[in-house]
Design brief:
The protein is α+β, with helices and mostly antiparallel strands and about 290 residues long. It is about 40% helix and about 15% strand. Helix 2 packs parallel to helix 4, helix 5 packs parallel to helix 7 and helix 7 runs antiparallel to helix 8.
């Protein structure tokens, strides 16, 4: 140990292992902030963040581009700092974490409409209490199902109440629900703009007879929740059952179709007049 190491505090020691151990016992917030921002060792800086309590300092770190942003976000509790972080943090994963802590409808609605990352927008949209055309359609359609056992040959991947299933379907980053499959026929589904009622068939199906299950058409999403650039070549078919008064189960099946270059045949397929030419699971549509 050098003479300098004997004289200075251990959190300023030349050995990073000694500094890290000293930081874990340190309470001085000003010193911890300095260490978190300036120490050359990642482990020491992380130890400092784990001891920090000053919310504006944690918020500043969380909104930055370093590896300390996520640990700092985990320690944020101040509501204003969380909201600010959700709006302007550099890292999308941090903004998504912040959205999980927000319950203000107006803030969530703004983030759902403006965040540059599709996954963050999706998270905010799922948590927003504001009316949502897709959620309203899913809720209305599922509430009309008659309770019945799920087919024994199909395993459910999610089970929950009506509201839980609606939130799960909207928040699932694998797909974006764009339509209802009428009469269990994918070719009869219609895709719609998400700002409007996204379903095939009439806007009011209140006179329809109760069914034992229903299906939705969903376009595949990319890794960050953005619409996949695969056109109609890949989609999800989601089957849902109501197994008790307020228990719903669903399973999503990924489907693929090869689109024929024959525009006349494709026109018949897309309009729902040639269901036999829509071949799922790697088949050829109109080929």
């Amino acid at each position: 140990m050098s003479l300098f190491d004997r004289l200075r505090p251990k959190w300023n020691h030349s050995d990073p292992a000694v500094r890290e151990q000293a930081v874990r016992e340190l309470d001085d917030q000003a010193v911890l902030e300095k260490i978190a921002l300036e120490d050359p060792c990642d482990a020491v800086r992380l130890a400092a963040v784990d001891r920090l309590k000053v919310q504006d300092v944690l918020g500043s770190i969380a909104r930055g581009s370093t590896a300390l942003a996520v640990p700092a976000m985990k320690r944020l509790t101040d509501r204003s700092e969380v909201v600010r972080t959700a709006n302007i943090a550099e890292q999308s994963i941090v903004r998504e974490m912040a959205v999980e802590r927000i319950d203000d409808g107006a803030t969530l609605h703004r983030i759902a409409a403006s965040d540059p990352d599709a996954r963050v927008r999706l998270k905010a949209r799922t948590r927003s209490p504001f009316p949502d055309p897709t959620r309203d359609f899913i809720r209305r359609r599922l509430s009309k199902l008659r309770p019945a056992p799920r087919p024994p040959d199909v395993a459910a991947e999610f089970s929950g109440t009506l509201e839980e299933v609606c939130a799960s379907l909207i928040g699932d980053t694998r797909f974006k629900i764009n339509g209802g499959i009428e009469h269990h026929d994918p070719a009869a589904a219609t895709a719609h703009d998400q700002t409007k009622a996204p379903f095939g068939g009439s806007a009011d199906d209140s006179d329809a007879a109760p069914e034992l299950s229903t299906q939705f058409l969903a376009f595949k999403r990319g890794e960050r929740g953005e619409p996949a650039r695969t056109g109609l070549a890949a989609y999800f078919q989601i089957k849902i059952w109501r197994t008790d008064r307020d228990v719903y189960e669903y399973r999503a099946f990924e489907k693929r179709v090869d689109v024929s270059p024959d525009t006349a045949k494709w026109s018949r397929i897309s309009s729902g007049t040639a269901a036999g030419e829509l071949a799922p699971e790697g088949g050829t549509a109109g080929g």
